[in-house]
Amino acid sequence: MQSKWVPPGIAGTGFGPLWGLPVRGNTSSLVPSVVDRVLKVPDLASVAGMQLLSERYAVSGGPSTGLNFLGALEVAIKTARRPVTVATLICDRGRNYSPTYYNRTWLAEHFRRHGGLAALDCWRRAITYWMSGTDKGGVDGVEGRSLLNYGSDECGTLNVM
Fold first, then answer.
1. Mean pLDDT value across the chain
2. Residues 68 and 102 both lie in one domain
3. pTM value?
4. Rounded to whole angstroms, how far apart are CA atoms 116 and 155?
5. What are phi and psi of 140, to 5 degrees?
6. 157 domain residue, yes or no
7. Would you say residue 115 lies in a domain?
């Protein structure tokens, strides 16, 4: 199967083979038998989630933390019973990404083909707006509405493989 990973994408990262040097795009950290759900998340949506977690909640993580955050929100909205509790992992410290995923100049250069800063800022607005619970018509837009569908409607589906 051909890899759909494109630089500087986040998808497909991991620890590489169990023995030997890690290979970008291959992972041994995924055990398919324990996976019950897979979500397609644009790279810049993950970066937006990561940045918002840091700015609003003082939770500093990397792009995989942003990905997990958005995944947790998706699971929460699709869970019928209320209240709902969803746990996720913060995989690494955000300070490791200061020169890259927290740097707008780096993001503009490396994610130009995925919509650049305009797409990043759109995802930041979409996540913030969706989390506020208010849709464009002034009605509750959170109950039952997918964040990823909302963001894709607002920002396009750039880099969704």
1. 76
2. yes
3. 0.75
4. 12
5. -60, 110
6. no
7. yes
Collapse the DSSP code of 61 into the 3-class scheme (helix H, G, I; strand E, B; otherwise coil) and give the result: strand
d(CA 53, CA 150): 19
Judge if 74 and 9 occupy the same domain. Answer: no
Cα angle 39, 41, 153; round to 5: 110
Does residue 156 belong to any structural domain of this protein? no
Cross-strand bridge partners of residue 134: 140
User: 99 and 136 share a domain?
Assistant: yes
In 3D, which of 103, 26, 93, 30 has the Cα closest to residue 64? 93
Poorest-pLDDT segment among 15-24, 36-45, 123-132: 15-24
Are 24 and 66 contained in the same domain? no
| 40 neighbors 25 (Cβ within 8 angstroms) | no
Residue 116, CA distances (Å) to 14, 49, 106 in order: 24, 15, 10
Type of residue at 39: L
Q: 111 pLDDT band (50/70/90 cuts)? A: very high
Cβ contact 44:123 at 8 Å = yes
Q: What tokens appear for 42 in the block?
A: 């644009």
Question: For residue 139, what are its two tokens?
Answer: 């009605």
What span, in angstroms and rounded, lies between the C-alpha atoms of 16 and 98? 24
